[in-house]
Amino acid sequence: MSAALRVGGLTPLTSLDYPDHLACVVFTQGCPLRCGYCHNPHLLDQQAAAEAPSWNQVLDFLQRRQQLLEAVVFSGGEPTQQAALVDAVAQVRALGFQVALHTAGLYPQRLSILLPHLSWVGLDIKATPERYPIICGRPRVAAQVVNSLEQLLIWERPFEVRLTLHPKDYTLAQVGDLLDWLSHYPIPHLVLQIARGGSCLRPEYQQITTPFSTAELNQLIQDSAHHWPRLSLRT
Ligand code: SF4
Hints:
Blueprint: E1 7-14, E2 23-28, H1 55-64, E3 71-75, H2 85-94, E4 98-103, H3 108-114, E5 120-125, H4 132-136, H5 142-153, E6 159-165, H6 172-182, E7 190-194, H7 214-223, E8 231-234
Parallel strand pairs: 2-3, 3-4, 4-5, 5-6, 6-7, 7-8
Antiparallel strand pairs: 1-2
Bound molecules: iron/sulfur cluster.
Iron/sulfur cluster binds near residues 31 and 43.
């Protein structure tokens, strides 16, 4: 028997994680990246905490929510790291739910198996290829992310690309460089997310001493409007 999905947590109700849908969020355990601003350090290790729900407990929960929720969002951690996600998505679909996915795009082969069964994807792009190792603490992952993006660009369902920006990682000029690089791809919906301080993975990210100014970010969005008519800011 194949291993069950390792679950790190469950949020029973959200309308934000799959925009405009009533959903729950299943947080999967394990992520190969080490972003300094990560707010889910407890999900990075492969081993789930003893108090985390099992996949069978999640399925029991979903059976009790069949007429109440529209969708299940898999988030992480990095959900596509686990081979068990493929079966988990099929089980959720069999219960009548739509399935949405948050991913950093690190496992494009698994993504290609999953895409026909998903309704929506939020793809996190962390940096231009040369800055991936600086921001995520892992070399040689950018090519996989670009492969995932290219799959989404020919997928015929809605998705968004999110850029999570922490002032420790980015100057405004570097945000501009990232937008310039991405302008080579016809991404329909791009969102700038400003990373929070607080309980981040790396202590130097916890205190934000030089926050982005909303006025400057809005100016950047305005200046990029010719490339990015659907660029928005999520704070
Ligand atoms: S923020 Fe980075 S390290 Fe944290 S779960 Fe997401 S991809 Fe992994």
